[in-house]
Amino acid sequence: MTLLKPKKVIFFGDSITWHGPDEDGFITLMKNRLKTEGKIDQFELIGAGVSGNKIYDLFFRFQKDILDKQPDVVVIYIGINDVWHKSQSGTGTDANRYLNFYSAMVKILKDRGIEVVLCTPSVIGEKKDFTNPQDGDLNAYGQIVREIALKYNCNLVDLRKEMIKYLQVNNPDNAEKGILTRDRVHMNATGNKFIADQMYPVLFAKQR
Amino acid sequence: MTLLKPKKVIFFGDSITWHGPDEDGFITLMKNRLKTEGKIDQFELIGAGVSGNKIYDLFFRFQKDILDKQPDVVVIYIGINDVWHKSQSGTGTDANRYLNFYSAMVKILKDRGIEVVLCTPSVIGEKKDFTNPQDGDLNAYGQIVREIALKYNCNLVDLRKEMIKYLQVNNPDNAEKGILTRDRVHMNATGNKFIADQMYPVLFAKQR
Amino acid sequence: MTLLKPKKVIFFGDSITWHGPDEDGFITLMKNRLKTEGKIDQFELIGAGVSGNKIYDLFFRFQKDILDKQPDVVVIYIGINDVWHKSQSGTGTDANRYLNFYSAMVKILKDRGIEVVLCTPSVIGEKKDFTNPQDGDLNAYGQIVREIALKYNCNLVDLRKEMIKYLQVNNPDNAEKGILTRDRVHMNATGNKFIADQMYPVLFAKQR
Amino acid sequence: MTLLKPKKVIFFGDSITWHGPDEDGFITLMKNRLKTEGKIDQFELIGAGVSGNKIYDLFFRFQKDILDKQPDVVVIYIGINDVWHKSQSGTGTDANRYLNFYSAMVKILKDRGIEVVLCTPSVIGEKKDFTNPQDGDLNAYGQIVREIALKYNCNLVDLRKEMIKYLQVNNPDNAEKGILTRDRVHMNATGNKFIADQMYPVLFAKQR
């Protein structure tokens, strides 16, 4: 009889991920589903989100919060604050830095044989007619994530693309919040469920 | 025989309009076409663009540059700097101010029986995959212009919509400039031709 | 026997002025002092502050809120949001616009023989070691107000200068709020008293 | 007779430091003075400035550009872009990140026995009446540097303090550039000489 060590999955991100382990957070929902499906022993899901984090904040705590913990899989979900803080406090992240810091971490993880899953930044505002002020910039940063995933051969959870598709159907009144988010950015129960559903298959995906 | 006074049309805007009377500018192109079509005597086309102008700068010089000149038609083309300056210098225009100053001027013109033509703000960046950083915000400000046109019953030149449509076809490499603009914002010869073609029919349009 | 019409004084500004007529607001405090000194019949003090207002918002409502009311004196206290919104939302006001809109209103008032009192923008943060992020910009905008006052021969309430002087003495711990403001910007009871004390003499000052 | 290895000094910073090895740059000037004083064999001065760098860009290239080169001394001169980019592109650095990334690098260097010299960020604009827009913010970031120097026992070159002192005397017309800088930020010949004179003694200072 072989006793398998569970797969250690760390979710690395900002406040959205910080809420992942909440009672109705997306990490908790995935755990619940693993239990229901009798697979909970195969996984250890760990939240490593910090409110307000931008790409370089992840880099700053990368050694301590990721490498030292020797994960099997790292799910990176970052970029909202990198775009949002530009207009909120003048302290967003230049696109080239977003690319460089992001790529550097992915490269280090891949070099160590750690599986990496990338998520495109979700939404700042849920309006479906592409009039959320940061839509263009989020599209650009999402595109950067897709290119990194392609270049480093990572699985991708294209949250931005999927959420926009969802909102086209489920936001008939073109509301700026309340469909998937409670405040334009942070997920409500539906949003957490949405993310959990998008991410869950990745746990079982073949590493690329 | 009746000698008709020519229709006085003032183009009211920012640096794009300021370049309108240039040799290959869109105002000059419209004049040339009027000549070719033998209609030049029916119109007086006047450029009133000032570099860097935002909506409240138009309001500031509204009396002197528009009302005092007693135009028959005013073509308003403003909004690029209102959006652009947000990230360039922290001095863009809040959406509600854009709406309020814009509406106030349109109302005054309509109340005096002056014809008003509105233009949606064109582009900041020509990438066709909706990743120009200000795309969302420009869409929002464009939407405001459409709503003002609807409310006050004005003819609309939907430059933003038409340019995006044009770029989908004519920007195969997803370049950020060089198709209609020389620098992401200001028109090159093709762009000036494009605007002239869009605006020309409005000169003959029935006032709504 | 002559029945004198009271002097109509309008306070024209942002949220700080909007709070002026509050129970402990600076306009109320001046009224109370006028009562105590038996001079209340000589003055009518009117608050015309609107939250979030910048210089061009004053210009926008200038006709309706000031000129139409035919005041004898207008006390202008504006500039905090012009500076603050730069970093808060990317929608502050360029220095040259601050100068131009401000000068235009002062000129119109003076041309009509209306007395104008200018106030320098107070503070965003109360730290006394000149490390409040907007200190330099507020100094610049304050300097613009002083130059307008000089050029148009207006009485000046130099709130910024006087508050900085006060904080040097009364902020031993270099706190960022709580001395004159409750939140770095809006006045607490002490701040309202301070402003009332600074402004009161101007009511009786000889027009320059 | 002992043949001493020269002291390896790396200058770590942004475009100002990038210009340090120019013909009239401050690093070249210090080398020239070392030659004149017959001490050039005792030092190896290395420029490691990159245009546009902010504190986290230094952190990003810290291993490669500093640690791998095994310096004896590191002179850190960073902060202008951290403040400036807030209004230029909305991508400045939050004060707490400036503190954290800065402290982390200083701690690592000190733990390895490497001497660290800190420089306060110089100027953005040379006006001497404290009306340069970023004066308050630069004062705040300068204060952070002073506190790090104190906490980690580092020698400090207080460029900001010394330049302000110099400008009080040598900028009679309150010009915004042309005294020490050529463009409000980057040093002219006088500015490079000024920095060289400020830094030179530190080469011989006792490590604290």
Polypeptide structure, described:
The structure is a homotetramer of 208-residue chains. With 208 residues, chain A is of the alpha/beta class. The first copy, chain A, has one domain: Rossmann fold, CATH 3.40.50. Helices cover 46% and strands 13% of the residues of chain A. Chain A has nine helices and five strands. The first copy, chain A, has helices at residues 15-18, 26-36, 55-60, 62-65, 80-88, 95-111, 135-152, 159-170, 189-203; strands at 7-13, 43-49, 73-77, 115-119, 155-157. In chain A, strands 2-1-3-4-5 form a five-stranded parallel sheet, sandwiched between helices. In chain A, α7 (135-152) links the parallel β4 (115-119) and β5 (155-157). In chain A, α2 (26-36) packs across α9 (189-203) and α6 (95-111) packs parallel to α7. The radius of gyration of chain A is 17 Å and the shape is globular. The model of chain A has no long low-confidence stretch (mean pLDDT 96). Chain B binds chain C through residues 56-57, 59-60, 85-87, 89-94, 97, 100-101, 104, and chain C through 56-57, 59-60, 85-87, 89-94, 97, 100-101, 104.
What brief labels describe this structure?
homotetramer, 208 residues, alpha/beta, Rossmann fold, 9 helices, 5 strands, 46% helix, G-D-S-L family lipolytic protein (chains A, B, C, D), SGNH_hydro_sf (chains A, B, C, D), SGNH_hydro (chains A, B, C, D), hydrolase activity, acting on ester bonds (chains A, B, C, D), Ester_Hydrolysis_Enzymes (chains A, B, C, D)
